Amino acid sequence: MNDALNHAAGQLGQRLLSSEWRLVTAESCTAGLISMTLTAVENSGNFYTSGFVTYSDNAKSQLLGVRPETFEAHTAVSEQTAREVSLSITGYAGPDSGEDGTPAGTIWFGWALPDGSIVAEMRHFEGDPKSVMEQGAQFALARLDVLLRDVALHQHA
Q1: pLDDT by 10s per residue, the chain, length 157
Q2: Architecture of 3-156 per CATH?
Q3: Are 113 and 148 within 8 A, CB to CB?
Q4: First and final CA of the chain: distance in angstroms?
Q5: Which residue of 28, 67, 80, 143 pairs with 90 in a disulfide if CB–CB is 3.0 to 4.6 A?
Q6: Residue 53, exposed/middle/buried by CB under 10 A (0-12, 13-18, 19+)?
């Protein structure tokens, strides 16, 4: 794992611990990289509860509760799918693009936050599949840390 990814996981872990928040992840194109990185953080058992790696639409539906209508209307790699899960990451790491023409390197992220808000963002990363996975995992963790910081600031304001 790269240093930036490990740093992002450590920073997020500290924020989760200090706020006494817990995290569940759902990964597709990162194949468990986020889970693996988070569990390497000291005291991860006190903030990380579970992670799912779901590649098929069927698994996303059965294990994560993503509605089948979402896949029919928007595909698995979409903002709508990312919004239906706690910390979700779904995309095409490459080398192939999606059947719908979505280019390789496209990843949708979704974060369900402790204040009830849901944020979804799409990013495009360049490089081979491993590089895209690492960049996507790092972005997901670093962005969640910023989002949680903002939630904490609003709770204490």
Answers
A1: 689 999 999 999 999 999 999 999 999 999 999 999 999 999 999 999 999 999 899 999 999 999 999 999 999 999 999 888 778 999 999 999 988 899 999 999 999 999 999 999 999 999 999 999 999 999 999 999 999 999 998 887 6
A2: Alpha-Beta Complex (3.90)
A3: yes
A4: 37
A5: 28
A6: middle
